[in-house]
Each structure stands twice: as C-alpha cells, then as structure tokens.
Amino acid sequence: FKSPMWITPLPPSLTALGEGSHGSILNGNYAPNRLSSAWKPTPHRNRIKIYRVPVGSTLDRVAHLAATVAPVGNSFVYPDGDTTIVNKLVDGTFDVPASWTVNGLWSVSGAVAAKTVGVPAAQVYQAWAASPAAADVLRIGVPVEATNGSNTFSFVHRSTIGSGGQTVAVPSGTGLKTMSMTITGAQTYGGFTASTERSVTISAAYAYVQTPACAPQGAFNYYAEAVNVSGIAGPLTSAVAATII
C-alpha cells in the first residue's frame, strides 16, 4: 500500500557534520553532533523525525525518537544535545604544549601527547580553570591513535601527582574512546597517566560536565523519517553512525 501522500522518490541521505560527535560544542574543538538533510518540506510532508538508536539495537520508533523537526527551506541541520557546554581542558587538541605539564616519559608536540615504555610511570596534565564539583558527572573522550601493552592507561582527576583523587580507565584499543566519572570532590588538575609498560599516543582530550540537555554517551546510528500531515511515515534514511562523548 502506498498513500497518495507517500514520500517519493526515496529520501536523500542523512549526513553527519563535524570532525567528531558528542552532542555539544567543546571549546570549538569538535563540532556538535549535527545531522543535515536535503529533504524539502511540502504541504503534505511537513515533519522529519530523528531517531537515535544505540549500535546493536533494533529501531524502536517510540524509545529512540530524539526529535521531531519542522524543517524550513530546502534543507535543515539538527544539533543533538547541549550546544553550550565547553571543554574543561583548555587545550584539548595539544596545540599549546606549554599548557600541559609532563612528567616521566610523556611528551606533547605536533598536536599529540605520547607516552613511551619505560620507568617511571608518568602523567600529562593541566590545571582545571574551575574544578568539576562533587556530584558532577564528568564525560571524557580521547582519540587514541596508537597504543601498545595492556597495563594502566587512565584519565585522572587529582591534586597529587601519582596518587589520590579519581581515575577511570581508558578502554583498550585505538579510536575514539569514551568514559565518565561521578566527581566526589574538587581537585586541582585533569589529565592522563600510564604505567611503565604502556605506550600510547593521543590526539585530543575532552572533558565536560554533563547537563540534563546532553545527548547520551555511546555509539549510535541516526535515522531520519519524513511524516505527512496524516501521520503516515515514509521510508527511513540509511544509518549515520556517531559516537557521542
């Protein structure tokens, strides 16, 4: 069955915009997770539904509905999440080596931070401009370009080098890694630590305080679907993959 108001031809592709995706602008380092489509509104096709589906899940049009958009003009852009938050690490792309303190076998140059294998265990860190507060949920993302070894590599929220504060392990492997921690109290700096047997290279570091408006953290597939004035939906776009920090 095909309604006279069905969407023809098939919908144009949905496009993800931005170097990385996290649902928020972090100091301009990554654009927010935005979806762009060339769908044109018509008198019969006046709404676009956006679905955010966890990778590995089957689309549920109720549970996974992220937004219903009434596009204006020949295309639209949908920012998913809180677009006002900022990266609490002031040099999240390692462009200003002097803003980072390194010890042990870490180095910062050429827009990456790198740790080589050897003694002692080491940290790379910078002072918080304003420490996350107790009960804040700090969401963290780090693109891991290279890694070797299976020992400790963690994000730290500390006041004393090498001990105390809070740590959360960075997931193994390369690619964009995400994690979070619930802050138990203010500390003076944030950064990374790695054990003597671990080598690692990272190209960015993002840490921001979650707000109620943030999109959820994780790996998702996005879909768009046009709906006519009678509530009849047309075909889905193909999936657009995004990892939200």
Characterization of the model:
- There is one protein chain.
- The protein is mainly beta and 245 residues long.
- The protein has no helices and 19 strands.
- Strands 7, 8, 10, 13, 15 and 16 form a six-stranded antiparallel beta sheet that branches.
- Strand 11 and strand 12 form a beta hairpin.
- The protein is elongated.
- Residues 1-12 and 17-32 have low confidence and may be disordered.
Descriptive keywords:
single chain; 245 residues; mainly beta; six-stranded antiparallel sheet; five-stranded antiparallel sheet; 19 strands; 43% strand; elongated; disordered N terminus
Name the average pLDDT: 83
How much strand?
35-45%
Mass-distribution shape:
elongated
Order of helices and strands: EEEEEEEEEEEEEEEEEEE
Put simply, the count of helices is: 0
Characterize the biggest β-sheet. Answer: 6 strands, antiparallel
List unreliable stretches of 5+ residues.
1-12, 17-32
- Overall radius of gyration: 21 Å
- The multimeric state of the shown protein is single chain
Global structural class: mainly beta
Number of strands: 19
